[in-house]
Structures are given as structure tokens and as C-alpha cells.
Amino acid sequence: MADREAVVRALVRSFDADPVARYLLRQDEHRARAYKDIFDIAFCKLTQPHGETWIAGDGDGTALWTPPSKWKMAPALTQVHRLIGCIGLTRIPHVLRVLDRVQKGHPTTPHYYLFAIGVDPAKQGRGIGSQLLAATLARVDEENASAYLEASTEANSRLYARNGFRVLEKLYMADDAPPVWLMWRDPKRGSVT
Q1: For a FRET experiment, which of 30, 83, 95, 112 has its CA 20 to 30 Å from that of 23?
Q2: Is the overall model pTM greater than 0.85, yes or no?
Q3: Phi, psi (degrees; rounded to nearest 5) at 100
């Protein structure tokens, strides 16, 4: 929790131009607050309680994971007033339908789930994201576990593919929405249990 502000700041900066974040979150004069709040909620309510949040340096990058069978959206609903502020009241029904469609693609087999990973744009291209992935993926392999994520750009899906993930489905959340790549990673061969 001591790194809360740095984690949120890194994610806000790294997702600033993300097409899925732009689609789901408000893009009006309340945009900056929406991005800050959504990543604060994700950190505080969805991932940090499970001890799987990683930070590089003083906030150069961060990764928000949940261990097998721990991913639950319900804790975020305790922040419903903030969530409405992130999306905008009139868009709530549409965004809930979109998120439900993505959630239905979430595998039921136990796995580590990468909710978000981001590197401050000023620090990108230095291998920080790969190091953040490697930290958890090494343990995933040691445990002979699988991992899952949703990539929000084709370029990101290629980065994850280089780290052993494969595309399960390219999902269009809605007719007017950008695609997401649902990706799965089996344990590396030769990993020990």
C-alpha cells in the first residue's frame, strides 16, 4: 500500500492512449479523475489484497496480478459511486454488458490473471515490462500453473506471445468497440511442481 500512488500513476500514464481504456472510461473533462480512480480501485480492491502487485523502480512500471481462483469483481462494487464517476451514469448499462462479455471469455481453469501491466511511456523500451512479466511467470512455472490476460492492442498481444501466451480469441466487446485478445499461457515445459 505504501506504493499506491506510484502504482496508480504508472498505470494512468501507460493506459492514457490505450484503446480499450478510452472506450470504457469517460473522455470528457472528468477523464483524468476517471483513470486515476479506476486504477486505484483495481489496485486496492482487486489485486493488492492478494499480494500480487509488482512495481519497478519508483513507479517506472507496475503489474497487477491475482493468484489462481482469486479473481473476483465483487470487491470493486463497494466503490460503485466511484465506478459510476469513471464511466458516466448514462453509459453504465452499455459498459456493464461489454464487461460481462469479456468476463464470459475468462477461463474457468485455475490460473494467474494479469489484470493490468503498464510502464510509464517515458520509460518504455527498456525491458521494464518484460522484467515485470518475468517476475511472476517464473513463479507460475515453478507452481506448474497457467496464466491468462486480455491484451488491448495487437502490439501488446505480440509482446505476450513472446512470453509464452497464445491467443484464445480476438473478441470484439461490442460493434463499436476495439478488440481485445484473450490470451492463455500454459506452464513452461520442464517446470517443477
Answers
A1: 112
A2: yes
A3: -65, -40
